[in-house]
Amino acid sequence: MLNQSLKIIRYYLSSGAIEGLLALAILLLIPSDPKNAWILGFSKSRLAIAAGILIVTAAFGWGARGFGKKAGHAAFAERVARTAGDFPLFGPVMLGLYGVALFGTYLYLYVGFQPLSTLQGVLVRIFPVVFYAFTRLVQTIIVWVALARAGRATPAGEGILLRPQKIVTLLAGIALFIVLASVMIDVIEELTWAQKFWGFRVKFDLDQEANIPTYFATFTLLLAAILFGVIGSLKAQTNGAFARQWQGMGLIFFFLSLDEAAVLHERFIGIFQLYLKPTGIFFFGWVIIAIPLVILVGIAYFRFFLHLPPKMKILFVASAFLYLGGAVGMEMVGGWFAEAYGENRPLYNVITTVEEIFEITGILTLIYTLLLYLSQNFSELKLRIANP
After folding, report:
1. With CB atoms counted within 10 Å of each terminal CB, which end of the chain scores lower, N or C?
2. Is 293 domain-assigned?
3. Residues 102, 96: contact at Cβ < 8 Å?
4. Which is nearest to 135 in space by CA: 227, 18, 52, 246?
């Protein structure tokens, strides 16, 4: 385990240096504006960004070259591997934080650089930084998962062993790929002014329906519904408390998965805009229905929430905050922006991307919570298929 952990960390440091050189090359290959030329034809701002990337790249390279040569490095690698096994939600949390940072960065740029030509130039120059940050995020999560596996031995036994951490990590990896594909296609289109990107634009666009992100969202919501239903059925068989509430949540999430697949809530937007003409944060009218429904469900499930163990309460609150913060909160922000500035702007794409990141992070946190609850309360769960 120790040698494997050392190799994993050394790989992480080496990949950081390689990705940094790639980001630096992209930055320096962007065409220069002669008006802002300072040294070697580059502007001061571009050279400052290049210096920052170069410093980080050099740090990764120096670390990769020297890591593992001192006795303390082995103990450090072992501690990191064990810590990785104790924090399975690291990946979804990092994904959510990246979404917040991305949204904050682009919001600052839109406020600080109003002329469109100036804004486009800034967006082009920060693309290598965004690219480098995202590749580091992906590598961090991959390495964290690898270290977690290195720090835990898989016990032998009959049957299939399901670990909440591994299941959620797999789903988080798929989510990362989908988000990365959507962001990269958006950025490439903004830089090249290309349209549709050979058909891949609509297939990976987080703001479109009937595509790969929609399928993934439908699947995760349906998985949560199944887990709620399984817990409810097990509670009913053992005369456990709140069995119907567990089953009720299963029905709610089954409807949410159906809504995601069939885009039912989008149908209310046109109806509300036709008759109520909502404005501002209620521009997407379906949130007018969603908010009171969320409040009613919260009131109905308050006693159910109180009976949960403390750790489960924290995880349920975190998943609800993330999912609703994206599905309702960021949707309201997007509605306000769409009415004020239109939907054909880069910042609107950022808003919808952050919205989806919040939703994905929330539902993955919920799935982990439900799997953890099953493992703690029904660890010997067996599936038997009866003869007809």
Report:
1. C
2. yes
3. no
4. 18
Q: What is the pLDDT of residue 82?
A: 72
Backbone φ, ψ for residue 39 (5° rounding)? -125, 130
Alpha-carbon distance of 349 to 304, in angstroms, equals 38
- Assigned token pair, 24: 């630096």
Q: Encoding tokens for residue 286? A: 């379906």
Convert the pLDDT of each residue in 84-107 to its tens digit: 666 656 666 666 666 667 666 666
pLDDT tens digits, 243-262: 999 999 999 999 999 998 88
- Got the DSSP string for 25-87? HHHHHSPP-GGG--BTTB-HHHHHHHHHHHHHHHHHHHHHHHTTSSHHHHHHHHHHHHHHHH-
Asked if residues 280 and 248 have their Cβ atoms less than 8 Å apart, the reply is: no
**Structural domain span for residue 336:** 220-382
Query: How big is the CA angle at 203 (ends 201 and 206), to the nearest 5 degrees?
Result: 80
Q: Are 56 and 129 in contact (CB under 8 A)?
A: no
